[in-house]
Amino acid sequence: MLNKVSSSITTLLDERRAGHSLPAGLYTRDDVFEADVEVFFMNHWIQVGVECDVPEPGDASVIDIGSTSLILLRDDDNQIRVMRNVCRHRGSRLLDAGSSVISKLVCPYHQWTYELSGELSYAPHMGKDFDKSCRSLKPVNFRSIGGLIYVCLSDDPPTDIKRLEEVMEKRLAPYDLRNTKVAHQVDVIEKGNWKLTMENNRECYHCSANHPELCVSFVDLDFGFDPDSLSPEDRNEAEEHFALYAERTRGWEEAGFPSATVEQVRHCETNFRTQRLIISGAGESQTEDATAASSKLLGTMARKDLGDLHLWGHNSWNHVMGDHAVTSTAVPLSADTTLVRTKWLVHKDAVEGVDYDLDKLTHVWVATTEQDSELVARSYAGIQDSAYEPGPYSKFSEGALDDFSSWYVERMRAHGY
């Protein structure tokens, strides 16, 4: 039997019309926010970081999701581990937010000490009969997929992440993201619900009017269009473009670079989509002039013409190019605020000022992220207005939003709402 809060959320889910945005309460209400965190950030796989966040043994990084805190670290055997940031004595946080370098995990409260494996090695004044073996730090289910770190906080994580692993390990292998470094990181607090952040990212209906920097390297026709509105000349251009896509995709795949669209976006637990996108103009990278930002290419890459390997999940989006990668994760902070963390990755041996210029590397996505933050805030402000009612998605430009909203409702119902 659902309680009153659950029943109320169920009513909102029932009100959602196919092909339309969600009812206002699903974006604005605190009880929905709490349910979202539980369903989508505690019981589904989420992307939280990259292996190069912790490049050396002893490197640690704290990731907070709601009231949950995680430690991503590299142990003495050079293996990645993820564990709960909670001392097994009386629950104190072991590490503060951010990055640190440690030889052991020492609780600042009572000095309980853990190896980088999570094993409790020292617990003062607990008596000779105290059994340390059952007081190791609690591990977290995680996967490193091509160097991208996914975690699931449930004891029963979704098994369909195997499809994501199968597809992306092969696609990401030539870029060797495990041997990159974080050249730059930007945290932006968006004034809107996390679902608006993800919806905004999943369409480019808004791009030509709002993202001049990004549009240098993105192809306008990829943003979606109404074919009936095109002139004969524009229609011919569109046909030529999609013929080029078919030709490029075929050529890339024949050369050993999987490129075709793969998506798992409805009737599933682990939501993702990937495709290799053509880069416009010079065709090399998402920079101001579409040329490569780093002369030292990633991994085993010897080509700059392999486009943008795009991957999104329900809390992340990634763009991987020959010279660098951009990875972004979204973490809900409250019903009306969302953390967007963006990282720029380059080859681990690339030297700033020698192999790459930091401004050229970051300019496009710094600008785009700031622009998107403003758009999300405007959208959230409007949704709070009593005049808001769910509007229809463009079937030409916003099909991915309908997929996302439909998947959201499916997953909420699967968890009892």
UniProtKB/TrEMBL annotation:
UniProt-recorded Gene Ontology molecular function terms: 2 iron, 2 sulfur cluster binding; iron ion binding; oxidoreductase activity
Cofactor: Fe cation
Ranges in a coiled coil: none
Keyword tags: 2Fe-2S, Iron, Iron-sulfur, Metal-binding, Oxidoreductase
Positions of the Rieske domain: 45-151
Signal peptide annotation: none
PROSITE patterns reported for this sequence: RIESKE
Gene3D superfamilies: Naphthalene 1,2-dioxygenase Alpha Subunit, Chain A, domain 1, Rieske [2Fe-2S] iron-sulphur domain
Protein name as annotated: (Fe-S)-binding protein
